[in-house]
Here is the input.
Amino acid sequence: MTQIVKMKGMNKYFGKLHVLKNIDLTVEQGEVVVIIGASGSGKSTLIRCVNGLEEYESGTLHVDNQALAPNAGNQASLAKIRKEVGMVFQQFNLFPHLTVKKNIMLAPIKVKNASQVIANATAERLLERVGIGNQANKYPGQLSGGQQQRVAIARALAMEPKLMLFDEPTSALDPEMIGEVLDVMRELAKEGMTMMVVTHEMGFAREVADRVIYIHEGKIVEEGSPADVFDNPQNERTQAFLSRVLAH
Amino acid sequence: MEFQFQFDWQAAVNAIPFLAKGIPYTLMISFGGLAIGFALGILFGLLSINKKWFLRWPAITYIEIFRGTPILVQVLFIFYGLPDLVGRPIDPLTAGIAAIALNSGAYISEVVRGGVQSIDRGQTEAGLSLGLSRSQTFWSIIWPQAFRRMIPPLGNQAIVSIKDTSLFSVIGVGELVRQGQVYIANTFTAFEVYFVVALMYLAITLTLSLLLRLLERRGVASI
Here is the structure.
């Protein structure tokens, strides 16, 4: 199996705060890894390191066999990695001044020098795939949260990434819209996309994840199949966390 | 002693052709200066938020100097002072345009900085995460959004600068106020003439306000 992400002994600080502690983690091609943990545990920071939105201080990180060095202001290797890694944000971060379709076409045209015709066709196909083919010419502000997040997923997919990062993709959504976004993610997983997902949706984690990772105060304290982690957690931190989030 | 003042409409109307000769100068200095000021504002505004201190500091120094000193002093310095340095006279029109350019450039730098910094960091992150370079992210994602937010304060600055040109009568540019002063020197109809001068400024600034409102409405509609 090919390892898409390989972290070894990674440490990350925000000033004096030690946010990631000695992280060892690999993600295989086609694997869906769901990362759970309390707010402030470092789970978002962890996946933001994978595409260089956060720098780390020590250890090693390889993404698609390319090293992303600590404190890398290294634009060249970063750009290369970012082309291969899509990201979906909690707040969608769609471009409000561009139509939905233009949001999706921007990166293929600018980064991959795709022609307008090809980028347009790709955008239409992807919008169809996430179920909002009829909204192509609207602006993001005219869409519901769930629709916006599906556009954001389509936008990331337009770059044909080898890995998708999801940073709490449903946390900013109204409850009735969470399902439609999770459905798209479930489809993606089924099609074999490699995914790292930070989420509080335990039902989704249990159903879709190949592996669940529980992070506590910047440390991976539990790791295993959903059945292992949810039904038979070994670490008392994990047990406490799960009893809190699964209680209701 | 009885004192009676009567507004002399005829005097006001008579003054119009002579005063109107000042309008091209007022417009030339205002918009010539603002065009350069806009370029300076983009340049120094962006430099003032650069991470590198040796780019940031000179920009901030420029902004603080030209924001922190009166434009009257600036134009006097350029017109009377600078020739000593460069060794030849500077004509009043050039001095006026330069003063508006440098002065509005400092204020517009702050407008640019504010506009750019008001755009959510998530926009930059989204651009970078898609593989766009920093400059691609800036020019195709951040700048178009920031510019829209900059339109109202830019319009404000344009109006301020148009009015600032009235100070340049002191260096003898034949702009509106200067024309008025010359005219009054012969006719002693100060009230009527300055009234017309004020109306002419108002006509220019109101037209600009209207155009900006249209521009703003069109810009906002697509967000």
Chain B has a mean pLDDT of 93. Residues 194 and 207 of chain B are 20 Å apart (CA to CA).
